[in-house]
Write a structure and sequence with these properties.
mainly alpha; globular
Length: 128
């Protein structure tokens, strides 16, 4: 009888190891997918805003400069605090404090990526 319990414990431990590895793999896939969505939506929003923006006394950024800046911005996730501050600053600069669909999508994608990958996470290797 004792041998059955030992066999059962060993079998369950093996299953738990497999489950943990499977969960880690699922978690990594979830992070990669969420980060991909974050990258895509932030690129759309930032590229659009930067194409329309010329700061006082400057010329608008050209395509290569915009791409370099957007790549740097999306290379890691903000913290929740940084995200809240970015949203606050962005809203202050919009007409009537309203957001466009692209920014609503970008904020939501950032939240999902933070949930899946963690605050301040770097771009997953699989999505580079």
């Amino acid at each position: 009888m004792r041998m059955r319990w030992i066999a059962l414990v060993v079998a369950l431990a093996g299953c738990a190891k497999g489950s943990a590895a499977g969960a880690a793999k699922d978690s990594a896939l979830e992070c990669t997918a969420a980060y991909g969505e974050y990258d895509r939506t932030w690129r759309v929003a930032w590229t659009s805003d930067l194409a329309e923006t010329a700061f006082k006394g400057t010329t608008p950024l050209d395509g290569k400069e915009r791409e370099a800046l957007v790549t740097e911005i999306s290379d890691s996730l903000p913290t929740r605090r940084e995200l809240a501050k970015l949203r606050e600053v962005h809203l202050a600069g919009t007409a009537g404090g309203t957001e466009t669909r692209m920014w609503i999508d970008a904020w939501a994608a950032a939240e999902r990526a933070i949930d899946a990958c963690g605050e301040g996470a770097r771009r997953p290797a699989a999505s580079r």
